[in-house]
Amino acid sequence: MSSDISTFTVLPLVFSTECTSSHDVYIKEHSVRAVSEDKPPGQTLFMLNVPPTATEVGLRNAFSSVGNIRRIIFEKNTKEEGDGFKRAYIVFNKRDHLVRALQLKSLKPMSTDNEPIETGLNLWVKNYNNSICDRDVLRKKVEQFMADFDSQEKKDKTEENVDDEGWTVVTKGGRKPGLSRKESLANKLNEKVQKGAKKKELKNFYTFQIRESKKEQIALMRKSFEKDKEKVALMKQGRKFKPY
């Protein structure tokens, strides 16, 4: 039996006909200010507290009595809402189908004999087997990738003599054709940049030499000054009066 809580309607959801207990989900019409193409207004049902075992097939089975479903979008809950459970947006083909869904008192089982939902160990085994890559499939993918790569390289080489506007760049003929105008201009610019870089390096090198030379001159001047001080001291001592 369903009951209203605030703006949501609470519906019991069962996994299969063999289940004796149900899980409550909360539904209401999806209505927000920002309109989204994948969640059109008037056709989208918003569902909370969706169990982890719920799949797209399971929800389609649960709402199979109201009409055709165009798409189902799952979103993970925030940390405040709790991990494991999720939210779902169910987009119906018509407005009437959404209205019928909002009037439901209960939902059909998610897992049926025709479309069973795997859980527990069976689901883990299936996911593990799907994670193992088939060698033949992998080899075909690699071969296809290399073939596409080689084809693209050949295409790039043939398009090297075509500029951005689609004009063919004419080059010199002969056994050793010359460079195109664009290539020649690019080479000249590159040489100019390299020369500027070398001049800058030489300038920095000369600046370093000048700085080191000044340091050496200052050191020599200090050394010479100390020697002169010693000479002056000796001369002063020699001028002292010695009566004996």
TrEMBL record:
InterPro entries named among the record's database cross-references: Nucleotide-bd_a/b_plait_sf, RBD_domain_sf, RRM_dom, RRM_Rrp7, RRP7, RRP7_C
Signal sequence residues: none
Keywords: RNA-binding
Span of domain RRM: 43-130
GO molecular-function terms, A-Z: RNA binding
Residue stretches in coiled coil: none
GO cellular component entries: CURI complex; UTP-C complex
A Pfam family recorded for this sequence: RRM_Rrp7
Sequence segments annotated as region (Disordered): 153-181
Biological process per Gene Ontology, one example term: rRNA processing
Record keyword RNA-binding present: yes
PANTHER family named in the record: RIBOSOMAL RNA PROCESSING PROTEIN 7-RELATED, RIBOSOMAL RNA-PROCESSING PROTEIN 7 HOMOLOG A-RELATED
Assigned protein family: Belongs to the RRP7 family.
Protein name from the UniProt record: Ribosomal RNA-processing protein 7 homolog A
Originating organism: Diabrotica virgifera virgifera (western corn rootworm)
Gene encoding the protein: LOC114349447
